[in-house]
Amino acid sequence: MSETDNPLKSLITQFARDFAAWSLNRPIQAVQPLNVEFPATPIQSDLLFRVLDQEGHELLLHFELQGRSSHKPMPYRELDYLSRIAFREIPLPLGPGTPRLHSVVLYIGEGAGRGDSGHYTIYGPDGSVSLQWQYQPIRLWEIKAENLLQLKQPALTALIGLTKLEQPKYELPQALTQIRTVPDSSERHQLLATLVTLLPTEEVTKMVEQLLEQTETLLIDTPYLRRMRQLGLQQGLEEGREIGREEGREEGREIGREEGREEGREEGLQKGRLEGLREAILEMTVRKFNPLAIEYRQLQANLEKIDQPETLQELLVSLLDMADMGSFLAFTHSSWQALKNAPTEPR
Predict the structure, then answer these.
(1) Domain definitions of the chain by residue range
(2) Highest averaged pLDDT of the listed ranges 76-90, 191-205, 284-298
């Protein structure tokens, strides 16, 4: 298991060399993870690596993960991160041997990071440059799934659920085929689990589960996917038996069972996905903030009110950026209020 429960951070950490080569667009010799906590400050970045490329250049590679909302504008967050990384990792005087620095923001969710150029300049009184910084924004939701598949990098293929799936019936089988080429069984199973975890909808998740072999399905071992399977099977059988008993004829019972299994499975998958996401948020919150019991119970209550997997996924990503427990509690409450006040679409 990775040091973090966030599937995307786990993926980048486990396959750091692949992500470094992709973001830096060059072959990589070695990658070493670095401490992301900055002393005497609550600031913590997401992922930081020391990279050595094929030409022998030393680089510091920083990844930040961001959903659709942020309590602080990303350009100023990046300025803060970059300056702290430079202060800690790049000694003066600067010269030809100074490590190079590159930062990547991975934007997750439709619309996240729209308009962020990654290049910012503040000018002095005479119009000269007073301060300038830059980073690489990657809006995963804008990347076409077919373009990701063309890279033929299984570690990147696991991101396909966060990209633009235009032909899922064609693209998802290709993704599974690429991941199945990974020779190491533990890495292969981790990539399959990550791919399923990051899928956007229950419909797409069901499509991938049908494509997976039974042995692969059993080896995908994430807490809420296990719960989804268990609840779906149990509730589907119970609903099927109940409907079947109400029918007077054998044919009616058989139809009832089949319809009940399908209906129960769908409902069970949805409930399992919601419960698993809530558990992941609670566990990450405990690890990050060690909240008081009253704060923990309040967070539980807030999460129970939210019945949209997309909103819970956004909360899970946003948790990485929260500075304290109070801010996260306020954010979960406002997320629930937004859902509560949202107009209901007619069926």
Answers:
(1) 7-142
(2) 76-90
